[in-house]
Amino acid sequence: MEKKLSILREKGYKITPQRRAVITALEEFGKFPTAQNILESVKKTQPDVSLDTIYRNLTLLAEVGIVHEIHRHTGNIYEIVTPGHHHHHLVCTECGRTECLDICPVNDAYVREAEKKGFQITGHTFEFYGICHDCNTGNKK
């Protein structure tokens, strides 16, 4: 928690009770809570917090690199970025199931192409969309 708060401080943001509660909720959920899940958790200590406040804080946490937002047609989900653990995701377009993919398809060719266009790559995210095994075989749970 303190490392995440120090990142916010370094970037010039205040440490509000709502931000603390959002980070705490993310840590408690582990992988892939929705904004609604986070709201329900935060309301235990911050009963007047709104879903809009949750989204604003999640957006900020994503912008500063504390949280990764994963886009799904069933609603976005979130995970805390773990320093030193770079990964991507597989997302089922049928049920929304999300799995970590511990390989990275980026290679030097991307960096060279970006440099040709005057870009310096500072980070990237990939979500691969498809149909999970259960949906593909009709075994939805």
UniProtKB/TrEMBL annotation:
Binds 1 Mn(2+) or Fe(2+) ion per subunit. The keyword Transcription applies. Its cofactor is Mn(2+); Fe(2+); Zn(2+). Residues 83-115 form the 4Fe-4S ferredoxin-type domain. Zn(2+) binds at residues 92, 95, 132, 135. Pfam families: FUR. Fe cation binds at residues 86, 124. Keywords: Cytoplasm, DNA-binding, Iron, Metal-binding, Repressor, Transcription, Transcription regulation, Zinc. GO terms for molecular function: DNA-binding transcription factor activity; transcription cis-regulatory region binding; zinc ion binding. Belongs to the Fur family. This is Fur family transcriptional regulator, zinc uptake regulator.
